[in-house]
Design goal:
Length: 188
């Protein structure tokens, strides 16, 4: 048992499986350095959510390694490969949402973040919701990625940085809250 949990929480108006799958990254970087990522059980969680319409969709919540050193970059690349393998093994045919802190910033010159992010897009068949509505914020590390399913489609109808993620005037996170508004409908 590591000293820190994964920090991944799941709240939803739509029902989801009792059996939430939690998978720790196989490769991380840093115990006393490299952003100390190996002290936490970072990884991803997975569950199938059932919308009030009866449509089921798969949702992955993730938190990837932080830091800007080469070992951090290598860890994130390995984490994308692990996630892509998990997604491809799912093969449920349901729509997919992958959301969370990728710690991948395409403008970062010290890393190959743009290439690793593209590998995630291509390997998992997902698209960044921000890009689908031309939000102009493509350099954020927090992302909501979507993919249609065989029987249902995901439409992104909005994307914003929420001004409501505060309590008593204080931010609830060290990151701005990214909100994507999605509509999931049965495929024609």
């Amino acid at each position: 048992q590591l000293p820190l949990g994964d920090g991944l929480n799941r709240f939803s108006h739509a029902a989801f499986d009792d059996d939430v799958v939690r998978e720790r990254w196989e490769i991380c970087n840093g115990i006393a350095d490299g952003s100390n990522d190996c002290l936490a059980e970072k990884g991803f969680s997975f569950a199938t959510h059932t919308l009030p319409t009866g449509i089921e969709l798969d949702v992955i919540n993730l938190h990837m390694d932080a830091g800007g050193g080469q070992d951090d970059n290598d860890a994130r690349a390995a984490q994308v490969e692990q996630l892509v393998a998990f997604v491809n093994d799912l093969d449920t045919g349901r729509p997919l949402i992958v959301a969370g802190d990728t710690n991948l910033r395409p403008s970062r010159e010290s890393a190959d973040d743009a290439t690793v992010l593209q590998r995630l897009y291509d390997g998992a068949g997902v698209t960044d919701s921000c890009a689908l509505v031309d939000c102009g914020e493509d350099d954020r590390i927090d992302r909501v990625l979507v993919r249609d399913g065989a029987a249902a489609a995901v439409q992104v109808i909005g994307w914003e940085v929420s001004p409501r993620f505060f309590e008593d005037g204080e931010p609830l996170s060290d990151h701005d809250a990214v909100v994507a508004r999605l509509v999931v409908t049965e495929a024609p």
